UniProtKB/TrEMBL annotation:
Keywords: Cytokinin biosynthesis, Hydrolase. This is Cytokinin riboside 5'-monophosphate phosphoribohydrolase. The keyword Mitochondrion does not apply. Belongs to the LOG family. The lineage of its organism: Bacteria, Pseudomonadati, Pseudomonadota, Gammaproteobacteria, Oceanospirillales. Its EC number is 3.2.2.n1. The keyword Thylakoid does not apply. It comes from Oceanobacter antarcticus. It catalyses: AMP + H2O = D-ribose 5-phosphate + adenine.
């Protein structure tokens, strides 16, 4: 069962409005499905769009904000809950604990860092929660090309795949199917 999804995304808006539209659509859809969101806690960029859309749809939104980013990224003031932590390491660990699945929207190096780290944790057995990219207009295609290159060159280990979807309902189905498959495999 998926009760909360951690969303990793940019603290900037990106160059095209399609990113904000997709972020809002996903957050609204999750809230309508009564699935809470855990995210970095900022009011800036796509992070703010996600929070605003989910809250407007009546959803739960938990922000996890490291103290050293609180001023620079401006903590969102309307969240269901804000958890202040001392470092990015604590942020990642708490988000992993609070979420049942992980989704990356378009973003920068921080988004990529969070996605790759949580996926690595799945591959070494620290969790069996699904990791996915919400692939707005093939934003993540270069990343998937790199992963294919790593496999082709013989550096990839067998393990959990990163899921990929372009529509909110498709994404949720993939997350749920992954959770059900890993739950039944454990029994």
């Amino acid at each position: 069962m998926i009760k909360r999804v951690a969303i990793y995304c940019g603290s900037r808006m990106g160059n095209e409005t399609k990113f904000a539209h997709a972020a809002a659509a996903l957050a609204t859809f999750l809230a309508q499905q009564e699935i809470g969101i855990v995210y970095g806690g900022s009011q800036s960029g796509l992070m703010g769009v996600v929070a605003d859309a989910a809250l407007a749809a009546g959803g739960e939104v938990i922000g996890v904000m490291p103290g050293n980013l609180e001023q620079r990224e401006k903590t969102h003031s309307g969240l269901t809950e804000v958890r202040l932590v001392s470092s990015m390491h604590e942020r990642k660990a708490l988000m992993a604990e609070l979420a049942d699945a992980f989704v990356a929207l378009p973003g920068g190096i921080g988004t990529l860092d969070e996605l790759v780290e949580i996926w690595c944790w799945a591959n070494i057995g620290d969790h069996n929660k699904p990791c996915a990219c919400f692939d707005v207009d093939q934003f993540w295609q270069p990343f998937f090309d790199l992963l294919a290159h790593i496999r082709q060159q013989g550096f990839a280990h067998q393990g959990a795949d990163i899921l990929r979807a372009r529509e909110p309902d498709q994404l949720l189905r993939k997350l749920i199917n992954h959770r059900q498959a890993t739950s039944s495999a454990q029994h």
